[in-house]
Design brief:
It is a single chain. The protein is mostly helical. It has one domain (3-224). Helices cover 80% and strands 0% of the residues. It contains eight helices and no strands. It has helices at 3-32, 39-65, 79-108, 114-123, 127-157, 160-174, 182-201, 204-224. Helix 3 (79-108) runs antiparallel to helix 7 (182-201), helix 5 (127-157) packs across helix 7 (182-201) and helix 5 runs antiparallel to helix 8. The chain starts with a helix and ends in a 5-residue tail after the last helix.
Length: 229
């Protein structure tokens, strides 16, 4: 198999594994535990499995592709550059996401999904789980979607825009498990912003920090607000 073929297979396997975790891990854990696992424990197990997926893809890149996991070498920047870019990226994503959410609610009157309401109960005053969830999402999703998938799609199609678009669309699709159009459109928008940044600045650490910050603020707001109303 050619190197591009191994890249394509790795991308497909990554997306399938993430899709399985998002869609089927909860019912699988419920079945295996015979319904004894609490929603909080089930959620923690699902996040641990995401780390296992990341480890599996890293091993695939070394053993099957025989390539570095990150095809684009990270460029080092100053502390103030990190600070400025993390906050500017956060503002772009927060303002853009809020605007898209407003448009979606205005035109189709979309309400909060039952999945998100259930998650809000799991996160209620559980700050350790909030931190663990944010770290998992920031590290695993950025390393897989931007660090792994984006450069390989670009190499396969020899087109920088293909890597940006494909990684962002897949990022949005994976969030469809949360049950709303907004949870597809907004992550897709964030995916485009992050992918553009990664292409221009080639620094995955800034994206991980911004992703953690975005999710932390979102989950803290979820923790404060009564989503049922």
């Amino acid at each position: 198999m050619s190197l591009n073929g191994r890249y394509a297979l790795g991308i497909l396997l990554t997306f399938i594994l993430l899709g399985i975790v998002m869609l089927y891990v909860f019912p699988a854990i419920h079945f295996i535990s015979e319904g004894t696992a609490t929603p909080t424990a089930t959620f923690v197990y699902s996040r641990i499995i995401l780390w296992i997926v990341l480890l599996s893809v890293i091993l695939y890149s070394f053993l099957i592709e025989k390539q570095p996991f990150l095809l684009w070498q990270d460029i080092a920047y100053s502390f103030f550059f990190y600070l400025k870019k993390v906050f500017s990226l956060y503002l772009i994503c927060a303002v853009g996401g809020a605007f898209l959410n407003f448009l979606i609610r205005f035109f189709i009157h979309e309400s909060m999904s039952s999945r998100l309401v259930q998650l809000s109960e799991i996160f209620k005053n559980n700050y350790g789980l909030i931190i663990f969830t944010c770290l998992t999402a920031g590290v695993v999703e950025e390393l897989l979607m931007r660090g792994y998938i984006q450069p390989r799609v670009e190499k396969i199609y020899k087109n920088r825009y293909a890597g940006i678009v494909v990684s962002a669309v897949l990022f949005g699709i994976l969030h469809s498990a949360y049950g709303t159009i907004g949870q597809v459109v907004i992550p897709c928008f964030i995916g485009i912003v992050f992918a553009l940044f990664y292409k221009i600045y080639s620094n995955i650490k800034i994206l991980i920090l911004c992703h953690i910050m975005y999710d932390f603020v979102s989950l803290m707001m979820m923790n404060i607000l009564d989503l049922k109303h």
